[in-house]
Amino acid sequence: MKLEIRRATPQNLEPMLEWRGGGEAMKTAIAAEFAAQPLGKRTILIAFDPLENQIGTIQLIQNHHDPDLSNATSVYLQALDVRDAYRGRGVGTALIRALESQAKMLGYSRVTLMVDLDNAPALALYEKLGYQKFKQALDVWDGQTYTMDCFEKHLKGTTAVDTR
Predict the structure, then answer these.
(1) Model confidence pTM above 0.85
(2) What single string gives the DSSP state of each residue in 79-116?
(3) How confident is the model at residue 162 (pLDDT cuts 50, 70, 90)?
(4) Is the confidence at residue 164, as pLDDT, over 70?
(5) 8 Å CB contact between 45 and 61
(6) Which of 64, 67, 83 is nearest to 15 (CA)?
């Protein structure tokens, strides 16, 4: 499948809010994520089909609250989402690889992520791409606490960044 992956721009916010759906908490979170990108706190990547429709997204977070998930050598993968009609067609894999490439360009040597224990498709994808579970942690979303598996992947050909 032909797709293009680009860094999100402010013009991409409204279309993303339309397709990602969710309640007010989700819309507020996505708007805050877009506002944080120009501040260097995250990188939002979007996959587009040939007609310029948004078909997937992923985020690179440099400052996660859990130091096991982001630090001087590690960045956090967040919010991988692919439209239902495009799942199973390599979009998620392409987005993860683009994020890993971005992490390498920034000098990070490790990518981490959290995934819900019962999200079998995501678990299979991450494991297929070389991510390995290293711990469990609690995560809170919209007032609910969830137990999550934390995964990591060490990237080859990178030099660690010293952020001190």
Answers:
(1) yes
(2) EEEE-GGGTTTTHHHHHHHHHHHHHHHTT--EEEEEEE
(3) very low
(4) no
(5) no
(6) 83
